[in-house]
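May I ask you to comment on the folded chain given beneath this request?
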Amino acid sequence: RRNIRRDVRGMTRRGARAAEIGARCRLTAECVETGARGVSAGLIYPPSKYRTLDEIVAISKVAAAYDGIFDVHMRNESDRIAESVEEVIEVGKRAGIPILITHFKVRGKRNWGKSSGLLKRLAEARAEGVDITSAQYPYTAGSTFLHAVIPPWYHTKGPNGLLEALKTQREDIKRDIEQRHDWENMSEILGWENVVVSAVATDANKPCEGKSVMDIAEKKNVHPVDAVADLLIAEELAVGMIIFGLDDVDITAIMRDPATSIITDGLLSGGKPHPRAYATTARVLGRYVREMGTITVEEAVRKLTSLPAAKVRLRRKGLLVPGMDADIVVFNPDQVAETNSYDDPMQHPMGFDYVFVHGQAVVRNGEHTGARPGRTIRDR
């Protein structure tokens, strides 16, 4: 750690850019010293999209010195996913930091089936000494905010700048969406019919929830980009979306990999949120364990508990052994099942009889007890 601090101080004497990276490294050190478990980056989104490999490595080295991890949403999950995997492997090699690829998936029909080769490459990297694992959600659709369909260079001046561009640069935005392919272009990769509005902030646009951009555009008799831009302006960017474009063959292949853990990646933003926010665990245990036999129930429990807890350094979570927090879920493997859908997402699953947090029952006989014994995790 002394060497890391010395290197960071040295950056301030090597020019403005190096000084800027040095400042971020100092901030990283402050954060991990006060409890952060590493650093994360959404490299597919601005502003992280504009981080260089050298900058990522420099910041990751600081976190690595404190036994932290690099939790990364890769730059690309479709046409350039192989290059994105190589980039994060390189970060692991150069920074000496464990890597967690957040919601690992393969997007776009033309890329379906690439998971087998990518999983093989990750296994090779682990054999080379890189601690690299992944996490996934078990659905063929993802979810984020609608403004992600606008090219990233229109986001560089912040939310107000993006809103201004939506008002004054509409034709430029259309042209870039239709002609440029140097970014994760959702409409081109998936089609507007597979981009669905999930939540809005105002009552005026509630009818848009659950509708695809193509449906909205056709009803208003406008170009899909105009439909998106008008909605983003009216809602001041507060629009959620669900995007369909994954394949179950890739999902099952990734789930079978021993280094894959399970996450929800859920957004509880009102409207019609992605069903994963309510039913990820039930879907794994019901559909993929009991119905499909993709993995065993024991392996599913490991992927839902001890594997992710160990990766993110939650040292008192994930195992039923003396000295750990008494966080326990009791479920019936023959009955656990999801009960919700994309049309009706806010339905709780069945088959979870008891939940204990710090030894106190918060669910008993499938009903919430009203207890809230959870507390901030500080166990480093």
User: Anything to note?
Assistant: Residues 16-33 form the longest helix (18 residues).
